[in-house]
Amino acid sequence: DTANTLLYLSDSLNSVREEGIKQDLPDNPEGFEPVLSVPGSEGFTLGKHYWEVEVGTWLITT
């Protein structure tokens, strides 16, 4: 309910993708609209963790 409307979460909530098309979702005052982010539902206290990221288009500017 709080992810940016440009981000699409999977039904299992374990992956996210950016489509560039804003979803028509109800307004949520707790949402992260100005930032492309998704808050996590669980935290980590110990161990090593990693994320696999697929990048479709990459632009680096100076």
TrEMBL record:
<dbReference type="InterPro" id="IPR043136">
    <property type="entry name" value="B30.2/SPRY_sf"/>
</dbReference>
<dbReference type="InterPro" id="IPR013320">
    <property type="entry name" value="ConA-like_dom_sf"/>
</dbReference>
<dbReference type="InterPro" id="IPR003879">
    <property type="entry name" value="Butyrophylin_SPRY"/>
</dbReference>
<dbReference type="Pfam" id="PF13765">
    <property type="entry name" value="PRY"/>
</dbReference>
<dbReference type="InterPro" id="IPR006574">
    <property type="entry name" value="PRY"/>
</dbReference>
<dbReference type="InterPro" id="IPR001870">
    <property type="entry name" value="B30.2/SPRY"/>
</dbReference>
<feature type="domain" description="B30.2/SPRY">
    <location>
        <begin position="1"/>
        <end position="62"/>
    </location>
</feature>
<protein>
    <submittedName>
        <fullName>Putative E3 ubiquitin-protein ligase TRIML1</fullName>
    </submittedName>
</protein>
